[in-house]
Amino acid sequence: MASVVVAFELGGRPVEVLVSPLATLQQVLRTQLGHTSVKDGCRQGGCGSCTVLLDGEPVLSCLLPVEDVAGRRVTTLEDLTPVDGLTTVQRAFLDANGFQCGYCTPGMELVTKALLERNPAPTRADIAEALSGNVCRCTGYVPIIAAVEAAAAAGSAAAVVASEGATR
Ligand code: FES
Ligand code: FES
């Protein structure tokens, strides 16, 4: 099979890449586009460390042929991280000690972002369900769940401040 060109949007910018047959999105992001926040864990769909957002929803990039994302929006943690500082979710993980080795962290934070966008006030059960496909071998999950709760609280507080500002 011949290589093909695949065009998609990565972090809001159009990209075109020449890819080998059967290349996964994970491989292309890491080795051709330099997005190494997308981790190379089990390559079998079992750990969640390769999670990216596809049109805003978490997907396992190790299971996804890159040709399937043609014309779609892909987002990795590189795309979300400000030049200066951290996102609300990143700050919450840092403050809650929501990581140790950090290998699972990009996937955890992208799942958290997607969760809070569709459900700004998740219960613990909602959080556990959302993160159920993401394995952490270090933290025992308690600080990760605390980080998601803190991010949700920070998002709610920011929304209140914004709405109060709008009514003044
Ligand atoms: S590397 Fe994709 S789920 Fe583990
Ligand atoms: S912090 Fe090490 S795997 Fe989660």
Element layout with pairings:
Layout lengths: L3 E7 L2 E7 L5 H8 L18 E4 L2 E4 L12 E3 L1 H4 L7 H8 L9 H14 L5 H7 L11 H26 L1
Parallel strand pairs: 1-5
Antiparallel strand pairs: 1-2, 3-4, 3-5
Helix pairs in contact: 3-6
This protein binds FE2/S2 (inorganic) cluster (2 copies).
One FE2/S2 (inorganic) cluster binds next to loops.
Describe the protein.
The chain has 168 residues and is α+β, with helices and mostly antiparallel strands. It folds into 2 domains: 77 residues, Beta-grasp domain (Ubiquitin-like (UB roll)); 80 residues, [2Fe-2S]-binding domain (DNA polymerase, domain 1, Orthogonal Bundle), CATH 1.10.150.120. The protein has a 5-stranded mixed β-sheet, sandwiched between helices. A hairpin with a 2-residue loop joins strand 1 and strand 2. The radius of gyration is 17 Å and the shape is globular. The relative contact order is 0.14. The structure holds FE2/S2 (inorganic) cluster (FES) (2 copies).
The molecules bound to the chains, other than polymers, are: FE2/S2 (inorganic) cluster
Report Rg: 17 Å
Number of strands: 5
Task: Tell me the CATH architecture of the largest domain.
Answer: Orthogonal Bundle
Unreliable stretches: none
Average pLDDT works out at 95
Question: What is the SS-derived class?
Answer: alpha+beta
The CATH class of the largest domain, by name, is: Mainly Alpha
| Spatial order of strands in the largest sheet | 2-1-5-3-4
Largest sheet: 5 strands, mixed
The helix content, as a percent range, equals 25-40%
